[in-house]
Write a structure and sequence with these properties.
Four copies of one chain form a homotetramer. By secondary structure, chain A is of the alpha/beta class. Chain A has helices at residues 16-27, 48-51, 71-76, 88-100, 117-120, 130-139, 145-154, 163-177, 208-211, 226-233, 267-277, 300-303, 332-346; strands spanning 8-11, 37-40, 46-47, 65-68, 81-84, 104-107, 141-142, 157-159, 187-193, 216-217, 240-246, 253-260, 284-286, 309-315, 321-328. Chain A has two domains: 8-161 and 334-346, NAD(P)-binding Rossmann-like Domain (Rossmann fold), CATH 3.40.50; 163-330, Dihydrodipicolinate Reductase, domain 2 (2-Layer Sandwich), CATH 3.30.360.10.
Chain lengths: 356, 356, 356, 356
């Protein structure tokens, strides 16, 4: 901690979050002259710009390679912090090894986010060494800086949150924590995400012909990010209903969250509640919900390609019903950007460094 | 009624609903050889295919004209049924005249849909003759065939429902009518519509650069279609929360509606409830919600360019929470197609004629 | 033939062209009460509406099945005309068998379109019986009604043209046939197609994230449809340069074709040339190119979801350079619609029947 | 100049290029602590973040204002360099005044790009003082760094190039300058641009319903950027045919340019020609065209949101025909990014500074 710079590595740069992570780390002011070590599954080194031509400089290549993964390579190169942008199962098996090699880890998968066994069940992990897995799990910190800033600073393993979960937890936490929300009435979270959230593998539902000009709900009452919401918000499963939808856009999430307050509240009170909660959080923008128009509600276009989570709200005339709209870029605040935030905290740097 | 054919007219063929209406009427089996009289605001006749090149035949024109509107013209041509695809204010002032001229009217605007004065207030109508307006209003039938089939058959004035309202009312009516829904818990309707719903006038929010790659909530707690939902479902304003969103697609609406049942229900009961309610309704398709996957939930792609309203649902394991997903094409079942359904009923024809 | 109706079958209804073909045949006025026999590769029958939920009626199913393919099944059902919407290689091997079983065939693949061996080489066909293949090839008629109407009427095997080829050949044929085009200057065809042209298989380049917000040229100097253009236009390979591009839209092709005339021409002459050539062709619409504005040039939006090929042009002031713009729906005039046109001709029916 | 920093101003920050310019200048390393003075046409100051919520920091505002334009204000603030992202006509009338006030100017409009009166005619400028206008015109430098780097360094007025013109000129200049292109055969440039190129004003053709799922050619044989191509490439009007198309994407241009060489060339020669020409140009990336596949041709997705112009090519087997594909972001290399490049040169800074 407190170092001027560190040596990082990235496993899984070929995916969408991996590309964003590469971009952020290559331009990070603390990492100038210390490009990440990129590692992947190919047996031979591949040029990073072959995977992602947009990263090329004017010579048509950045010269950077994605090298075959091995723990030896990481040690030779003096890697201190490893980003895993790998599939859940792979992260589940690699993290204990990484920790054993003395590496700090930011894992972008869902492998280590969930404390309760029943919430993790949906992933179907088969831990080779269950006792070790439990130990590692116990060390893991849920990497949402707005909630766990202090723990992240010292963490060896940071489990970077899910994109939907980030948008819903940040929208609800201040109001739930204040005890304002009537949980018996139930909370409804209607979320919509761009296609990059579904990953790079070509499937029937990532085909342009399926996603374009369409909208579909999916994983109704059964999405993997539900567990994160329950654990981080301290809710029962019956108190929150979450429905994700697939939007015909490349990136961005908008969550429309419906709560009922126990008692009447003024819009100004809600505004103050949100602003106070996030007073020390550089990556949350509160949109004023005071006006009658919806002009100042967040929209996907305002948050996309930024690392901000934008939050706005609107109150019904009855003073009880409140709609919170939260937006973020699923590849940035919902993945790679938040991972960099976590690195910043782990290294004692400014939380927003390299994210403006 | 009961005639083989009738003479129709269309005012407002230049808009998106107008184009669909023209297309449907020109291909309607009952109207072969009796093209609608198209009337508009231009002082000179304009070729219909100049407005809508897609309607041209292989000679580059259908020969049809949009003629300057006058009541005399309509009478000369023997018009019996007038479709108004005109702005709300214009429909509000024309309908009394049309009825006075002995015409039957299907009005696609919001002018005559709302019974309660307070629900209508949002339109800000200034009736020239308030007493006459009240009389006309009293005669108006809300043109949702699934609810008012019999009244529509005899109606002189049919107020064609709003697109959002159609999707929400059809999703909820069977469950609310059965008395199953816990209204104290509140109903949430999260709706998403394509851009054609915003009309043809170029505005800041219909600009491609605003709508594309974006999603935005608008008219939160203040959309004009709320009144239709309240009146048709028999609800109080505090019992239902409706939020529309602007989708980056040309056409289609998906509404995700969240209800809590008073008592536990099985999915099979919900399925049966919906199927029974719509047993006699040819334009509603029930998607089975029984499976665990969301495969059989409606999606915009399945209903668009059809006149169907597709309805599916999914139940939580608690047996109390139910998510209903309804989809339709806002220009067809949400506008022009439903107008033709209404014409079919008014003329004693099969409800689905010309709509397959 | 001149029969009132026939029994058809469709192999390959699961793809995009197959869906359109199913739709067209199910609504074709000559085939009422005689649904096509749908056959596919699954070992068990599958409901057609499971593949394509949009085809369901209000009972949620049309009742139609896609049955396991066998020649016996086709014979039992009395099939007379078989549509093959199958991969090239499969069509190449099935067609000789189909003809041997006495079936007439409209093949939508590229298997039998090309006369010259060197043009066919790009498909890499391995004919089991080369002599038989040659015999079949010799019988095949290129199914572009505007050029080969008379041959199609009597054909046993119609090779339905490629989508790009249709748009380019129809744009050029009248001008090339008139001898007006300076072939030494070279013709340039710059074509752009929606993603459905790439087929239903999920691949890296049909992924939403690849196609959306993007445009890319592909198969430069090496697209399979080149052979069709050369053979049908009677050109040498060096006389025409064709570049396809992948558009971020579901369907539609626009080809911008650049020619230089040997001698000065007036726009009116070009207009007359096109109109005369297509005087007897119901599925070509000539857009007048006479004005100075581009208002009357075809656009994808006007031809999509129709079976028309729209053609317009603009002349340079020098009277020599002419730009021809042609548009069509790659799934209709570029595939399934043209297949139905061919069926109409083969059966002695009106060319445009069921295609309005 | 060689100063460490300067004071800039931006007129016209409300448009799309203006937003990108604001973003670039606010993050430019040389301008830290010296935000541009933003000026506009409103009579009262407006918050920049009200126009562009995406520019807000986590307090919901950057604090920056767009102030009412006046020459006095610019002088008070010590402005040295003025960016005009204003309409053509306004730039035409303001630039002489700006120069008279001793300001250096980068004008993003088409007002001062064209040397020949006949090429300028299409804009229909009415110069208040024709003699002054001629003097100013004579001083103007065409701001394409790859062609006029040295002149730009010393220029008082830089006319920032058109977006289409940049993509076409950069694709062609090396080959034309080498004398390789057979001009008698004619050059064809088929260009496609995203909707932001059409500006922020809502019009019939920027409406989402017009642009989405569509492609259209426009301004055929009559686009305003033609003059720039003729002047910068030294061509006659009959030697080059340029057709722009409106793509259904927010941003990006792809130009497909067809040339015929006088004599056979190897791909390696073409590659070398391009690489040598742009050896000193940091903002051009040459994609190798040597392979048989089109993998290495530029695509819009690779250049968008960068300041690069990407250039690739493919040769026909005849060694004479060559297709050059060039891509850029119309708001960056086609507008605001190139304007910053010009500022960098004018100030003696590194051409690519602040543009990585």
């Amino acid at each position: 901690m407190g170092k001027d710079s560190i040596q990082t590595a990235v496993a899984g740069a070929s995916g969408y979050a991996g590309l964003e992570l590469a971009r952020l780390l290559l331009h990070h002011p603390r990492l100038q002259g210390r490009a990440p070590v990129f590692v992947g599954r190919d047996a031979e080194p591949v040029r990073l710009t072959e995977m992602h031509p947009q990263l090329a400089d004017n010579n048509g290549s950045s010269g950077l390679l994605v090298e075959p993964f091995s723990w030896e390579l990481l040690q030779e190169r003096g890697v201190e912090l490893l980003f895993l942008a790998t599939p859940h199962e792979q992260s589940r098996s690699w993290v204990p090894e990484a920790l054993a090699h003395g590496l700090r880890v930011v894992d972008l998968s869902g492998a280590w986010r969930l404390r309760a066994h029943e919430n993790r069940a949906i992933y179907g992990f088969h831990d080779a060494d269950a006792a070790l897995a439990s130990q590692v799990q116990a060390k893991s910190v849920y990497g949402l800086p707005e909630l766990h800033r202090e723990c992240i600073r010292k963490a060896q393993l940071v489990a970077n949150p899910g994109c939907y979960a980030t948008s819903v937890i940040l929208a609800l936490k201040p109001l739930v924590a204040a005890g304002w929300v009537d949980l018996d009435r139930g909370i409804v979270c209607d979320s919509k995400s761009g296609v990059s959230g579904a990953g790079k593998a070509p499937t029937a539902s990532t085909h342009f012909m399926y996603a374009a000009d369409n909208l579909s709900a999916y994983a109704v009452f059964g999405h993997r990010h539900m567990g994160e919401m329950l654990e981080q918000l301290g809710l029962e499963e019956t108190q929150i209903t979450f429905t994700p939808h697939l939007l015909p856009i490349p990136r961005g999430i908008l969550s429309t969250t419906y709560v009922t307050f126990r008692q009447k509240k003024e819009a100004a009170e809600v505004d103050a509640c949100l602003r106070e909660f996030y007073a020390a959080s550089p990556m949350v923008r509160i949109f004023s919900g005071r006006g009658k128009t919806s002009t100042h509600l967040p929209q996907i276009q305002y948050s996309v390609r930024t690392n901000y989570c934008d939050i706005g709200f609107q109150m019904a005339k009855d003073g009880r019903r409140c709609i919170v709209v939260s937006c973020l870029d699923n590849l940035l605040k919902g993945a790679a950007g938040q991972a960099v935030e976590n690195m910043n905290l782990m290294c004692g740097w400014d939380e927003a460094e390299g994210l403006a």
